[in-house]
Amino acid sequence: MATANRYPRRLIEVDLPIARISTHARREKSIRHGHISTLHIWWARRPLAACRAVILAALWPDPAPGPDEPPCPPAFVQAARKWMLHWANDCAKKASAESFRRLAAIQKDPAVLEDPSELRRVLLDFIADFANWDNSTDKDYLDTSRALVQAAHEALGGEPGTRPLVVDPFAGGGSIPLEALRVGADAFASDLNPVAVLLNKVVLEYIPKYGQRLADEVRKWGAWIKEQAEKELAQFYPKHPDGSTPIAYLWARTIRCEGPGCAATIPLMRSLRLSGKGAGIVAMRVVSRADQRNVDIEIVQSPKAVEVAGGTIRRSSCTCPLCGYTTPAQRVRAQFIRRNGGADDARLMVVVSEPSSSHQARFRKPTATDEQAFGQASECLRKRQSGYTAPLVPDEPLPYLRSIFNVNLLGIDQWGKLFNRRQALALVVLVEKTAVAIENILKTTEIGLATAAGTCLGLVVDRCADYWSSLAVWAGDFVAHTFGRQALGIIWDYAEVNGLSDGTGSYAGAVEWVLRVLEREATTFGPQGHVERASACEHPLPDDCAHLFCTDPPYYDAVPYADLSDFFYVWLKRSVGKYHKDLFKDPLTQKRAEVVQLSERNPLYAYKTRQYFEDLMKTAMSEGRRILAPSGAGVVVFAHKTTAGWESQIKALIEAGWIVTGSWPIDTERPGRLRANNAAALASSIHLVCRARENPDGSLREDDVGDWRDVLAQLPKRIHEWMPRLAKEGIVGADAIFACLGPALEIFSRYSRVEKASGERVELKEYLEHVWAAVSTEALSTIFEDADAAGLEADARLTAMWLWTVGARKRANGGAQAEEGDEHDEGEDDEEVGKAKKPRMTGFALEFDAARKIAQGLGVHLEKVPTVVEVKGETARLLPVAERTRYLFGKDAASEQTMGVRGRSRKPKQWNLFDELEAVDAGARGTAFGEIRGPQAGATVLDRVHQAMILFAAGRGEAVKRFLVEDGAGKDSRFWKLAQALSALYPAGTDEKRWVDGVLARKKRLGL
After folding, report:
1. DSSP H helical segments within 91-138, as ranges?
2. Cβ distance 65 to 9 under 8 Å?
């Protein structure tokens, strides 16, 4: 018997209401007030909704086990019936519509809960409802969840009076341990990164311990700091003579034009638009002062489109408005190297003001007073520094990380150089006033509360730093913060916040954001968690102490956490480092033991190779298994975009001694995010459920050998059982493929090794090839609604599967929209100087290895279908129908080359179907269109469907009729089966969807 079956199965190993949880997780992305994400920046946070639901389902046993499974403890069943009856009788009005129907039935007949399967469904309903943000602080939901967590713990062998321990060794922003505390478990959170540790201390230790008292101290002393800072800084943010207060200053870095005889000073502006849409647009208009070798601007209302068509900088190359010369990107960047990035000698272009009662204009040109104030601030900072030996402005090194920290290319090689002198002065004053405030708090209250309040005030400074850098941008109505994405890209024109105002990014606003979190969470907790700085590879906890190992580990080079967090570390070290000496004793965060791959980003990290990452991840997963009690469960969250990433994470788990017993995709991404457009980006984070593969004495079991034939025989059955379950929850496409890995891996990972009849060991990589094949086969039958797809040729099967994989998210969300942060710096930070902007990709792209696996599973080799799929580097692209026009209607083999087959692309940048048809007409007049009967029928069903779609798109109605009826293309039942499938697969609003629907509409009309 596999280890996992020695103990009662957890609810998460059987079922999970993933569609409803995903709805709440997506909604949470738009919630700000009181959410811990607003306490402080951290990257790649998990939604609280998903964490809360997963933790509950992983701590509760399944009340309806199968006949061959260990029974659920009767004590938990009894407690579950009691609390679910309470929920039905006393709390049903708070339940969702989906849950209410079941609760109403329980109200009428409580005996319904005697059915174990019904009890399971009610528990799942509760989990789905509790995932709702609005219920996360509701007393009834909290009491119920905590009572059942306690009942499950004791029923599963926990000592009475103790709570189950949930451990997260990659705690990061604290979502997982926070939700463990919320549902009544003990939480142990650790991280190697001191900034993450500090955040977790606030959430897991300070808030539960001090509650509203902590919020009161932060409010009181936050107001005091603002008042004191205003006394010193107000003079550097002068009001306009009309009484209006500046809320932001818009700056542009400048270069000297290198055109022959020009040398004009050019402000680098990405866009001239300031605000508004349509007739309400406010913009800058460039005015060339040729006689002064200068560029000026005017602020205009409702300008003509040509006046604000573009800025002066594009892809790091600058075009001079005076002489027209374009200074190339390499020379543009070279001009900044000795100017520390050019923030201090940038040109002040516009002042944004809050309107007074007599002055309504929001944008104005700067005055001499505005410019003098900046110079005075710079001089004040210089004098202030002269009184200190240690640098007030961070001088710690800022490294170059290719495509992540590209600001280094401008000479910004210290963290302090990210701020202009006035921004730096304002932050220095805040740091000093925060230190004084903490000393004052220590005089009036205990050291623990003073440290907690001071730490929160330090986080306020960090929030200000995020908005007060020279990488913040004006977003039309507000200032967008520095970390709009997980990088420090090049920003040419930036927005400087007046932190004393009431605008975006102000100090008062930062205090308020922190307070909302403190006050909201203060109502939730009693016991506090435990936080330590520790490596996941050397966990400080003893063996077999945890009841749930739940973590979201790093993914290769997806997020360089240590380097990113140095932005905040250098300010925290100055503001609160004195009170956390163990966390801030080093110049910067520790990099050596960080589990991340960065060898390709900077030679300094040559040791952080792929193998380095994989070895450390295996060690971390082994440590997780070591500290987990034999009866405990594990949940590992994973959302890497590559198949190689998935394979390595799964390999690490299995080699570390885990059995994968389930996998659940929970949608954690905002609908229609830009980066998912036309590609198979995961919409979900996959939660891999695991058990330790151990002997009863806790040692790793190494003597179970699986038979390869038996494993392969079970695989299709498991996938067949699982795929409809996912489809029912709306999980399709790439999410469904990766979600099938869990049940597939349970078969393989229950053994210490799997062998063929020859005794040869089967590696995970070989097994995963079979998994992809089984998933592809099952998905194909789902796509065609169990109709026989065997009669369709390889290109049709591959096209259908490809669209299903890539297009699922777009079908669900109705197209792509930009996610906050996706377009923050508009691609101006390409590390390769002079690199051309990539043309907009058309068609549907897949990572090559994923495409290869899908194709192989269908018995298709990508190199055999070059007229359907184009492969370039690591990307494979399903060609749009329009790009197949010449192939489908042309007469000679050379037409293939016009389509970019085999990489010899001569196609124009933007394909146009009608241009293609005209070209075909011109090359084969009298044989392809017009007076001819129609095209020669394609060799495959897919070719013929595409030919009909193209004819319909071109308005060749008679040709469509002849092609379908007289030439017989429409008399093949496979034609309509494929057309119907494609109609369902193409995303709504696409040309292909419209074209194939147009062809389908003619079926009945033509008597077919």
Report:
1. 97-108, 116-130
2. yes
The pTM for the full model equals 0.88
User: Which residue spans within 500-627 are E strands per DSSP?
Assistant: 530-533, 546-551
Token readout for 151 is 């009942």
Question: CA-CA distance, 309 to 317, in Å (whole number)?
Answer: 16
The token pair at 989 is 């609003």
Q: Give the H or E element holding residue 908.
A: none
Residue 432 has pLDDT above 80, yes or no: yes
Let me know: does 352 contact 479? Beta carbons within 8 Å: no
Q: Are 86 and 36 in contact (CB under 8 A)?
A: no
- The widest CA-to-CA distance across the chain, in whole angstroms, is 96
Q: Please compute Rg for the chain using Cα positions.
A: 31
**Cα dist. 144→28, 54, 121, 325, 645 in Å?**
22, 16, 16, 70, 39
What string of DSSP letters covers 280-316? G-EEEEEEEEGGGTEEEEEEEES--GGGGS--SEETT
DSSP reduced 3-state for 391? coil
Q: Where are the beta strands (DSSP E) in 939-998?
A: none
Task: Please state, in angstroms and rounded to a whole number, the distance separating the CA atoms of residues 747 and 875.
Answer: 31
The token duo for 690 is 């695991």
Asked if residue 195 lies in contact with residue 572, where contact means CB atoms within 8 angstroms, the answer is yes
Predicted confidence (pLDDT) per residue in 224-244, tens digit: 999 999 999 999 999 988 888
| H or E element that contains 59 | helix 48-59
DSSP 793-821: -HHHHHHHHHHHHHHHHHHHHTS--PPTT
**Among 16-20, 909-913, 998-1002, which is the least confidently predicted range?**
909-913
Distance CA 455, CA 93 (A): 40
Rounded distance between C-alpha atoms, residue 117 and residue 917, angstroms: 60
DSSP character string of 177-235: HHHHHHTT-EEEEEES-HHHHHHHIIIIIIHHHHHHHHHHHHHHHHHHHHHHHHHHHGG
Residues pairing with 134 in the sheet? none
Which residue from 331, 313, 399 is spatially nearest to 826, judged by alpha carbons? Answer: 313
On whether the CB atoms of residues 281 and 303 are closer than 8 A, the answer is yes
Q: What is the mean pLDDT of residues 886-907?
A: 47
